[in-house]
Amino acid sequence: MKLGLLTAPFEDTQLKEVASWAGANGFSTMEVACWPAAGGEQRRYAGTSHINVDGLSADQGSEIIAELREHGIEVSGLGYYPNPLHTDAGHRAEVIGHLKKVITAAGVMGIKVVNTFVGGDRTLNLDANWDRATEIFDPIVQHARDAGVRLCFENCPMIFSQDEWPGGHNIAYSPKIWRRIFEEWGDAVGMNFDPSHLIWQFIDQTRFIKEFGPHMAHVHAKDVMVDQDGLYENGVMSTGMGWQIPRLCGLGDVDWSDFFSGLYRVGYDGPIIIEHEDRLFEGADEKVKRGFLLARDVLSPFIK
């Protein structure tokens, strides 16, 4: 395993500077955020563009890889997390177009993984969303195959705010849908596993890793705290809003010993990428860095 970080919180820092800091502080890999360079994304921890994928050449890609390698950093994958199933067709076309560019860039750079979301239309039921997903993703998955890239979906329900309630913006959150995903596309796709999203859904982590571990090609390390007062106040019908609190590793309710035990048992030996969404450690680069270092110290004893 290799410990790394997702670059999204460093939106105002050049990639080579992030790599320099990461390499000097015990990290050996990074997932590079690749939202459109033109900007426009307003969601928290989204919009960072550390590689401009528009028309990226092989020489440009090789230069980036070599520059990161000078700091002891590999690229675990490229990350772009939009909503390809959005209710607005124009928005869907825009984000799907960019996702294909990210996949193309990964292929050019020799990067084997692109992480994203299946997406979801909160106005549709699960089965209607799934029908849309198969129609939309069949050509995207084929594009990834042609580029030599494995498309990996994260298991995040994407329901943190009122504009995402009640259905969320990503249907790939439950075992039921994950079975459909692998039945539909097989090994052409993988899971970008984040244990924090199981906690507040009351999905058993040990069982989940045992079932889906062989399909995990990339792993996010993020914690979450269930705020019991918020749960009491809002109830489960609020679908986590008001009581799921993203935290850095070791500050929430994820059982990290069980997490790593499960990964080792299923033979996972890939990247462990710290995803930073903890409001207590944001607002300045030094606070963000402190958060990453705290999570590093919690996880590093498990990684050999």
Strand tally is: 10
Helix content: 25-40%
H-E order: EHEHEHEHEHEHHEEHEHEH
CATH class: Alpha Beta
Main sheet? 8 strands, parallel, barrel
Task: Write out key terms for the chains shown.
single chain; 304 residues; alpha/beta; TIM Barrel
In short:
It contains ten helices and ten strands. It is of the alpha/beta class.
Explain this structure.
Helices cover 39% and strands 16% of the residues. With 304 residues, the chain is of the alpha/beta class. The mean pLDDT is 95. It has helices at residues 15-24, 58-69, 89-109, 126-147, 175-185, 196-199, 205-212, 228-234, 256-265, 285-299; strands at 2-6, 29-33, 74-79, 113-116, 150-154, 189-193, 216-221, 223-226, 244-247, 271-274. Helix 3 runs parallel beside helix 4 (126-147) and helix 7 packs parallel to helix 9. Strands 1-2-3-4-5-6-7-10 form an 8-stranded parallel β-barrel, surrounded by 6 helices. Strands 8-9 form a two-stranded antiparallel sheet. Strand 4, helix 4 and strand 5 (150-154) form a beta-alpha-beta unit. The protein has a single domain (2-302), classed as Divalent-metal-dependent TIM barrel enzymes (TIM Barrel), CATH 3.20.20.150.
Draw up the topology in text.
Elements: E1 2-6, H1 15-24, E2 29-33, H2 58-69, E3 74-79, H3 89-109, E4 113-116, H4 126-147, E5 150-154, H5 175-185, E6 189-193, H6 196-199, H7 205-212, E7 216-221, E8 223-226, H8 228-234, E9 244-247, H9 256-265, E10 271-274, H10 285-299
Parallel strand pairs: 1-2, 1-10, 2-3, 3-4, 4-5, 5-6, 6-7, 7-10
Antiparallel strand pairs: 8-9
